[in-house]
Design brief:
Layout (H helix, E strand, L loop, with lengths): L1 E12 L2 E10 L2 E7 L7 E6 L4 E3 L2 E7 L17 H11 L5 H17 L2 E9 L6 H12 L5 E7 L10 H11 L3 E2 L9 H18 L2 E6 L9 H12 L5 E5 L8 H14 L2 E4 L1 H7 L15 H6 L3 E4 L16 H11 L5 H9 L3 H7 L15 E4 L4 H7 L5 E4 L2 E5 L6 E4 L2 E5 L11
Parallel strand pairs: 1-4, 6-7, 7-8, 8-9, 9-10, 10-11, 11-12, 12-13
Antiparallel strand pairs: 1-2, 2-3, 5-14, 14-15, 15-16, 17-18
This protein binds 5-methylcytosine and fe (ii) ion (FE2).
Length: 435
């Protein structure tokens, strides 16, 4: 007898969709087989009823230390990155371990309910006491059986421009972060920006860690730290262990430089993370009309063979007052913001919050629906990824390491309409979109 059987799920592979039964035992996928009339005995059976089965959503970029602090001690009225940093700097002295832990765990529960079981969170380490870091290290252990949480040592106020910034970064590495961050566009000078990347690379290499830098999050076409980061990734061989996040200045680069940059980024094998919800709101704030979008060149970078993922960045904090920790919402916004609207492109947006984000985190064999891998997945009452994005479908079932941790029933609306009896509204697609 196995622990868990999922009957009749719709699995989409390179060969197309098929109905499968999934056998799970001891938290691991044991078999993925064409659906059968004689399935094995199982302690628990989930009837998927044709729902789409997918590996869980992956959040490649969020700031859990700041989450749920919007309006504390004041609201970001201008909507700029800079006022957000100032508000956060005023909130930081009030941080306590319990405060950070409770807010971060609350939002992780939202993520889990939405089917997100892998999260990379930045944590500000420009704080003499490293209060938020210690709180999130504790959270990482507490949630370990349900969500894998990667922590990035994020020097919000600079490595070179903040007092003892370098030492604090190293101390964070010593305390056990997974990833080293940077913020070169925030450093006082271009030289400091370049040096901050070198410091980050040095610490990452000495501690055997990955890198995820906030890079060029500014509408300044002269902010070009991505070329430095990518070149370091290439020359050190760190390659896909390096990620450049935000990269919003790319929205302002001229065509000639963009062409050159695509080559450098693709050659380096680094990942990019675009945060469409937040950077649509933060960027362009110093423009009159025409007003720039300020986003990563997602379509062009994908075409160049670069791995790009979509992140949420913020949930109710000084930089962004909205958010429900739902990657499908992020993918939906990302499709619009980066003009990825052809049917295959919308499906690509789904990949940018699932397997492309998983690649960014380096999850490897720890992710995906295949025998021998951890039995973590979602069931989505939808026909395919396009359908998930269009209707912003939430998972009916979320399973982590073989344990059912969340269920969401359908919530139909009954409509009375001229000439028709009261009936449930059906938002199902009217026309097949061939994917
Ligand atoms: N800090 C930063 O530098 N940029 C951001 N987008 C957020 C925090 C959310
Ligand atoms: Fe960020």
């Amino acid at each position: 007898m196995i622990d868990l059987l999922v009957r009749g799920a719709r699995l989409i592979t390179a060969d197309g969709p098929s109905l499968v039964d999934i056998h799970i035992d001891e938290g691991t996928f044991r078999a993925v087989l064409p659906t059968s009339d004689q399935p094995p005995e199982a302690a628990t059976v989930i009837d998927a009823n044709g729902a789409l089965i997918s590996a869980p959503f992956v959040e490649p970029h969020v700031h859990l230390d700041a989450t749920l602090t919007a309006g504390e001690p004041r609201w970001n009225e201008s909507g700029t990155l800079w006022e957000g940093i100032a508000c956060w700097s005023e909130r930081k002295p009030m941080l306590t371990r319990n405060d950070v832990r409770d807010r971060a765990e609350e939002v992780l529960r939202w993520y889990a309910a939405n089917g997100t079981l892998h999260v990379r969170s930045h944590v500000d380490i420009t704080d003499e006491n490293l209060v938020a870091l210690d709180a999130l290290l504790e959270v990482r252990e507490r949630v370990r059986d349900v969500i894998t949480l990667q922590l990035v040592a994020f020097p919000q106020e600079g490595i070179c421009s903040f007092p003892r910034g370098e030492e604090l970064l190293e101390e964070a590495a010593r305390r056990g972060v997974d990833v080293i961050g940077a913020i070169p566009h925030f450093e006082d000078t271009r030289e400091d920006g370049v040096r901050s990347i070198d410091v980050a690379v040095d610490v990452a290499q000495r501690y055997g860690l990955r890198i995820d830098a906030h890079c060029d999050e500014i509408d300044d076409e002269q902010s070009r730290f991505i070329e430095v980061l990518a070149t370091r990734a290439h020359r050190t061989g760190m390659r896909e262990r390096v990620t450049a996040s935000h990269t919003t200045a790319m929205g302002s680069y001229n065509a000639a430089y963009s062409y050159k940059l695509r080559r450098i980024v693709a050659r380096a094998g680094i990942n990019l993370v675009c945060n469409p919800l937040v950077n649509l709101h933060l960027q362009g704030r110093f423009d009159s009309y025409p007003k720039r979008r300020g986003l990563t060149q997602v379509k062009e970078m994908l075409a160049a063979g670069v791995n790009v993922a979509f992140g949420h960045d913020d949930i109710m904090d000084p930089w962004y007052p909205l958010g429900t920790a739902n990657p499908v919402q992020v993918a939906h916004a990302g499709a619009h913001a980066t003009q990825l609207m052809a049917p295959t492109e919308v499906a690509e947006c789904f990949r940018m919050v699932t397997d492309r984000a998983a690649a960014t985190l380096g999850l490897g064999d720890g992710y995906g629906i295949d025998t021998g891998r951890p039995a973590s997945f979602v069931l989505l009452p939808a026909t395919d990824p396009f359908d998930v994005i269009r209707r912003q479908v939430r998972p009916s079932h979320v399973v982590s390491h073989g344990a059912l941790i969340a269920t969401t029933p359908a919530a139909p609306t009954t409509l009375t309409w001229p000439g028709r009896d009261a009936e449930e509204v059906d938002f199902q697609r009217r026309r097949d979109v061939v994917l």
